[in-house]
Amino acid sequence: MRNVLILAGIFCLLAVVGPVLAPQDPTAINIPNRLSPPSAQWPLGTDALGRDVLSRLLHGAQWSLGLAFVVSVIGLTIGTIAGLAAAQGGKTLDWGIMRVTDTFLAFPELVAAVVIAGLLGAGTGSLIFALSVTGWMRYARVARGIGLSVKTRGYVVQAQLAGLSPLAIARWHYMPALLPSLTVVWTGMFARAILGISALGFLGFGVQPPTPEWGSMLLDARVHMRSTPLLMIWPGLAVVISVLAINLSGDVLRDELVKQQA
Questions:
Q1: Which of 37, 101, 187, 262 has minimal Cβ neighbours within 10 Å of its Cβ?
Q2: Looking at the whole model, is its pTM more than 0.90?
Q3: Res. 195: pLDDT tops 70
Q4: What is the pLDDT at residue 193?
């Protein structure tokens, strides 16, 4: 299981240092060497414009994983605030927030994100907004459920009687109880965000050329899928392995939390 955490850590590290490790300029066009097979000069070959695939994968990690991190953190923030507001507020506020949450959950996340991104237009900002708007509901449900159980505990009631503000109570009493569960949920949503960014990039709604991103690399390679299948295999493997590693790391965290609570 430690190997899973190490693998997930390596992929997250690539989002930071990937561009430094890239052997060549990922946007440099070299038409005479287009669609070259893997070699010493180009370890993973070149694409249809002669650009080094390895360099584009390493630079793409910064966008695919970096944007997924941003999206998942925004969703975590929005969902936690909404869930705590529902738990701490009265019945009317709780009912209203949960109905909004149910409404968003009624639509498939990726389909809703595609619709929003299509309405706003292609681009990084639209991508982040679309995936953030459709990715906060699970956090809200978890935060509300745990918040309702914590709300009736004696130390929380005493804090309320002592006149502490709702923000202070949330910080000192709710967040310690929420953190373990939200961490596990966040790893799963981080992986889903990678898939969402890659899917929107493949559909042309994500990071725009010539900036390398794994989904857009799949989009560019689809034309050459039969003649040069490696062009699709490399970014596809990057997406699959990173998603699996992060998902499995979430399972490891969940098992550790269960052991600690036992």
A1: 262
A2: no
A3: yes
A4: 93
Give the tokens for residue 217. 């690399």
Average pLDDT over residues 16-45: 87
Residue 55 near residue 34, CB atoms below 8 Å: no
Backbone angles phi, psi at 52, to 5 degrees: -65, 120
- 47-52: which pairs have CB atoms within 8 A and are 24 or more residues apart? 47/217, 47/220, 47/221, 47/231, 48/220, 48/221, 48/223, 48/224, 48/231, 51/26, 51/27, 52/22, 52/23, 52/24, 52/25, 52/26, 52/28
- Distance, in Å, from the CA atom of 138 to the CA atom of 105, rounded to the nearest integer, reads 9
CA distances to 30, 35, 134, 232 from 48, rounded to whole Å, are 9, 5, 34, 12
d(C-alpha 38, C-alpha 32), whole Å: 15
Domains annotated for the chain, with CATH where assigned, are 44-261 (1.10.3720.10)
The pair of structure tokens assigned to 189 is 């949503």
Residue 107: left (phi > 0), alpha (psi -120 to 50), or beta? beta
**Can you tell me the distance from the alpha carbon of 137 to that of 76, in angstroms, rounded to the nearest whole number?**
9
pLDDT at res. 165 = 78
Contact (Cβ atoms closer than 8 angstroms) between residue 130 and residue 75: no
Q: Tell me 209's DSSP state.
A: T
25: Cβ–Cβ under 8 A, 6 or more apart, which residues? 52, 55
> Which pLDDT tens digit goes with each residue over 41-62?
889 999 989 999 999 999 999 8
Strand partners, 235: none
